[in-house]
Specification:
This is PglD N-terminal domain-containing protein. InterPro entries: AcTrfase_PglD-like (IPR020019), PglD_N (IPR041561), Trans_hexapeptide_repeat (IPR050179), Trimer_LpxA-like_sf (IPR011004). With about 220 residues, this protein is of the alpha/beta class. It has two domains: about 1-90, Rossmann fold (3-Layer(aba) Sandwich), CATH 3.40.50; about 90-205, Hexapeptide repeat proteins (UDP N-Acetylglucosamine Acyltransferase, domain 1, 3 Solenoid), CATH 2.160.10. Helix content is about 15%, strand content about 30%. The protein is built from three helices and 24 strands. It has an eight-stranded mixed β-sheet, covered by helices on one side. The longest helix is centred in the first third of the chain and has 13 residues, at about 10-20.
Length: about 220
């Protein structure tokens, strides 16, 4: 198998070792970085190639991991991979904890020390950085991003393309009144979210308060 990590940047460098762990029987030469704008030829002793070069390679069995923080770019690349019939791989660190009745869409990346407890539904292209957790009865949409150490407590609904910043804490909701983070909302670093956040709004602080509407997608 020939595996490309799309994104030769900081997050890509962190994801590559997780991919290698998940495919321990492959040689190092079977892994490359894909970056259409990079001037690098190699990164951490892996080749850096363009997407067209990856497509034109002679290997028949290919897969791609999208390691790009921008959720809109992730979605565009996911569409491109689907059009080109290239499978999008999901990656989990060896020490990730996933308990009962957890459903995750394709293209997820669960970094080291992440934890998904039970009765959780997660959409496509989810990124959970190191030391993040999702507790029971949460529903997470497509292309949601967790920065490091996000604490998402139970009965929380997070809609598509939301970004949850480093160290943010989302209070537990209830089955009848879940805490909802709207589509495209941004939760700032260290924020403590005690009530629902409307779509497209950025919040910061403890308790988290809005700065105004920032995104309209």
């Amino acid at each position: 198998m020939y595996i490309g990590i799309y994104g030769a940047s900081g997050f890509g460098k962190e994801v590559m070792p997780l991919v290698r762990q998940q495919y321990p029987n492959l040689r190092k030469e079977n892994f490359v970085f894909i970056d259409d704008g990079s001037e690098l030829n190699d990164l951490n002793q892996y080749r850096v190639i363009s997407y067209n070069e990856f497509l034109s390679s002679s290997e028949q069995d290919k897969g791609v991991v999208i390691a790009i923080a921008n959720s809109a770019v992730r979605e565009l690349l996911s569409v491109k991979l689907e059009q080109d019939n290239i499978p999008q791989l999901s990656i989990q660190a060896l020490n990730t904890v996933v308990l009962d009745d957890v459903v995750i869409g394709e293209g997820s990346i669960l970094c080291s020390f992440t934890c998904l407890t039970s009765n959780i539904k997660i959409g496509k292209g989810f990124h959970a950085n190191i030391y993040s957790y999702v507790a029971h009865d949460c529903i997470i949409g497509d292309y949601v991003t967790f920065a490091p150490s996000v604490k998402c407590n139970g009965n929380v609904h997070i809609e598509d393309h939301a970004y949850i910043g480093t160290g943010a804490v989302i209070k537990q909701g209830t089955p009848k009144r879940p805490i909802t983070i709207g589509k495209g909302a941004v939760i700032g670093m260290g924020a403590v979210v005690t009530k629902s956040v409307p779509a497209g709004v950025t919040v910061f602080g403890n308790p988290a308060k809005p700065l105004g509407r920032q995104r309209n997608d």
